[in-house]
Design goal:
Layout lengths: L1 E7 L6 E7 H7 L5 H5 L25 H6 L5 H14 L4 H33 L11 H46 L3 H5 L5 H16 L1 H23 L1 H48 L1 H6 L3 H53 L5 H43 L20 E8 L10 E8 L4 E6 L5 H8 L7 E6 L2 E2 L5 H6 L1 E4 L10 H5 L8 H10 L3 H4 L16 H14 L4 E5 L7 H17 L3 E5 L3 H4 L4 E6 L2 E6 L1 H6 L4 H13 L24 H9 L7
Parallel strand pairs: 5-10, 5-11, 8-9, 9-10
Antiparallel strand pairs: 1-2, 3-4, 3-6, 6-7, 11-12
Helix pairs in contact: 1-12, 4-13, 5-6, 5-9, 5-13, 6-8, 6-13, 8-9, 8-13, 9-10, 9-13, 10-12, 10-13, 17-19, 19-20
Bound molecules: adenosine-5'-triphosphate.
Length: about 700
């Protein structure tokens, strides 16, 4: 038995109107394994089916919408999320309303198809039936062609407007989410608490789809179900009542069983994800696997995961078999029952063959409409689940607020002071990294912090940059608590050279000008010259060389990072030295760049130092142990004290990096002089000549 089924693929993009076997029509009413069908195999998370913790609520006080929404997330969040999703559509009011108008036109045309087919069958099978309005056959055919073309055009317009509105909403939402993520405190993003990337890509798409595509499908489903039912009652109330007793229960049964199948399919997908994760991990570490002859072990682990996938797939196969068998069977039986009873009504002359055909077609429309309605609600729930996550990020107040505080004057200079600072990482509450930490660094002074790995050196810099705030005490600049300063103006005052400088996609020039988009080429070159980046001039494309094609050494990366920091003309330079050793030449070039900074500028320098050659350059050295300063003094002072912790620490490090080089007590002649702040002097110019850095034009 042939019927026309209006069904929608789970990809949510295509409407298929096809003459298909009624048995498969029943089977198609539920979507099976939609993740696989849509190609979204990476998206394992489900939204509506896994309720998030619910907030206690008084059910008596919540309305229908709240109760409906509360099945997925906490009612209050869901309702506000629902409102926000609707609010998102406001700027798209015009195209969306036009699309809804077009939807009614196209739905009216498609809902008239079963009726038209019935009339056509009656017209061709009987001589008594007249064409309405006294039209000739050609005129009627022409009118139908015009009506169907208008319906198709309306449908095309609706699809375009809905799609574009959805995409514009997603684009706006993505930009807002990205901006919100960039302004969060680093902990939130870096530790993956925010799961920012999935909110940015997947969740925003789901939200956009739920305001446009789902809304359109929901409206179409309402039209299909109600208009279909109305038409059926008009054609034959008795047959429609019989149909209503049979079709909706079977339809809903099929939908719910389909959901069970979908869950099974999701579990299979998850297991497959685990399997691929394992394979990716061991294949990407193939050298280690082979070095330890761990292939049999890895094969066994992979076998366990494959077996798990197989057992789930078997369950899914059995469930699918039952599903297709039973839906096909019940569909055929229902059609048979309707045909049997309908046939008897035809033979009694109560309805025509055309009416019966129209009725059967409307039955399929109504069944399909009901299925679309149930999936409409679950899509809305999915949209709300995703929306809650997106709006949570959009509405999240960063722990370090971006828009409060006084703007720091770019020319202000003053000492940096850590006063009785206590600090622990938010993710490791109770573990104090810094305890009663006191340190003052004068204007233009250079201080090197040394200490064993994990003693808290980098944490001091993290506090200086306000990636975190201390839990006790304060950090001040020129006597003012840095928490009172507007964060961007404070960070503008600091040039940071991290342990492992990050270079972004783009040219060398754009990397030096990172955060300084208005810097001129001359300023960029000056900064590079000052940071001893002579290697840039040696490249065929110079500052326009794309970073992606380069393989830069650690020293070169550090010098580029120094240039980037210098371009800001910072009041404070915070340099976190790489722990890994640089070759002698690179080390010399980095240190020479540092020397130039120390000599030329009134820049306060805070080094996290690992290399002796850097340590000696600082005017003062502080030794950190267990989050406290245990020693402080000049290099000469500390190195000459045979019992100093500094000596022990440096000996350990030297022994580790160079077994030959053992630190000896220095005589006053052999200790290198720390670099003290001077006015611009000749020595620097000499050095610049030595390395033949390109002259400033
Ligand atoms: N983001 C973080 N969250 C939680 N703990 C952290 C974080 N960063 C560092 N820690 C911990 O804080 C302690 C101090 O780390 P920090 O990086 O400041 O030490 P460090 O002296 O700079 O070490 P290294 O010389 O190895 O770079 C360590 O125990 C480290 O594991």
């Amino acid at each position: 038995m042939l019927g026309i089924l209006a069904c929608r693929s789970t990809a949510g993009s295509q409407r298929l109107c096809a003459a298909i076997n009624i048995r498969s029509a029943w089977a198609q009413q539920v979507s099976i394994g939609p993740l696989r069908q849509t190609g979204l195999t990476f998206q394992y998370r489900t939204y509506s089916t896994e309720p998030e913790p619910k907030k206690p609520t008084n059910p008596a006080k919540t309305g229908f919408v709240s109760r409906l929404l509360s099945s997925g997330t906490g009612p209050a969040t869901s309702v506000s999320s629902f409102r926000k999703i609707i609010a998102l559509a406001k700027p798209e009011r015009k195209p969306l309303l036009t699309a809804v108008g077009l939807l009614f036109v196209s739905s009216t045309v498609s809902m008239s198809i079963p009726f038209t087919i019935g009339r056509l069958i009656d017209f061709f099978s009987s001589t008594n039936v007249q064409i309405p309005f006294g039209l000739s056959t050609w005129q009627a055919s022409g009118s139908l062609l015009i009506i169907f073309t208008a319906g198709a055009l309306a449908n095309a317009g609706r699809a375009y407007l809905m799609k574009m509105s959805g995409q514009r909403i997603v684009a706006r939402l993505r930009e807002q989410t990205y901006s919100a993520a960039l302004h969060q405190e680093v902990e939130f993003v870096e530790r993956g608490e925010g799961d920012v990337l999935s909110r940015l890509s997947v969740d925003t798409s789901i939200v956009g789809e739920s305001v446009t595509q789902n809304l359109s499908d929901g409206l179409r489903a309402v039209v299909m179900s109600f208009v279909g039912l109305g038409a059926m009652f008009y054609l034959s109330p008795t047959l429609t009542t019989l149909m209503l007793c049979v079709v909706p229960p079977i339809s809903f049964g099929a939908v719910f069983y389909g959901r069970y199948l979908k869950k099974l399919s999701n579990r299979t997908q998850e297991a497959m994800g685990e399997m691929s994760k394992h394979a990716t991990e061991s294949l990407s570490a193939l050298r280690t696997v082979q070095a330890y002859n761990a292939q049999p072990q890895e094969e066994l682990k992979f076998h366990e995961r494959v077996t798990h996938v197989l057992s789930l797939a078997k369950k899914e196969a059995i469930a699918s078999g039952i599903f297709f068998g039973s839906t096909g069977w019940s569909g055929n039986i229902t059609i048979l029952a309707l045909l049997g009873y309908g046939g008897s009504l035809v033979s009694q002359g109560q309805i025509t063959v055309g009416d019966l055909t129209s009725l059967l077609l409307y039955t399929v429309y109504v069944g399909s409409g009901l299925q679309m309605l149930t999936s409409f609600f679950s899509s809305i729930m999915r949209g709300i689940g995703a929306g809650t996550r997106v709006f949570e990020l959009l509405g999240r107040k960063p722990a370090i607020p971006a828009d409060t505080g006084v703007v720091l004057d770019a020319n202000r200079r003053g000492p940096v002071k850590f006063e009785n600072v206590g600090f622990e990482y938010p993710s490791r509450k109770g573990v104090e990294i810094l305890k009663d930490f006191d340190l003052e660094i004068g204007v233009g002074e250079s201080v090197a912090i040394v200490g064993s790995s994990g003693s808290g050196k980098s944490s001091i810099q993290a506090l200086l940059l306000r990636y975190y705030d201390p839990i006790k005490g304060k950090v001040t600049f020129d006597g003012q608590d840095i928490r009172e300063l507007k964060i961007d103006s404070w960070r503008d005052a600091i040039g940071i050279v991290p342990q492992d400088p990050v270079l972004f996609t783009g040219t060398i020039a754009s990397n030096i000008a990172f955060g300084n988009p208005t810097a001129t080429r001359e300023q960029i070159e000056d900064a590079a010259r000052e940071a001893n980046c002579e290697f840039v001039w040696g490249m065929p494309k110079g500052f326009d060389t794309e970073i992606g094609r380069l393989s830069l050494s650690g020293g070169q990366r550090q010098r580029l990072a120094i240039a980037r920091a210098l371009l800001k003309k910072p009041a404070i330079l915070a340099l976190d030295e790489a722990t890994s050793a640089l070759d002698a030449n690179s080390e010399h070039r980095v240190n020479d760049a540092v020397d130039k900074i120390l000599r030329k500028r009134q820049t306060t320098c805070l080094f996290v130092a690992h290399r002796l050659s850097t340590v000696v350059r600082a005017e003062r050295i502080v030794v950190l142990e267990g989050g406290r300063i245990v020693e402080s003094g000049t290099y000469r002072h500390l190195a000459n004290d045979p019992d100093s912790r500094f000596r022990a620490l440096m000996s350990e490090q030297l022994n580790a990096t160079n077994a030959q080089q053992v630190i000896k007590p220095h005589t006053s002649e052999s200790v290198p002089e720390p670099v003290v702040v001077k006015e611009k002097d000749e020595e620097v110019e000499e050095k610049e000549e030595e390395v033949s850095l390109p002259d400033k034009k």
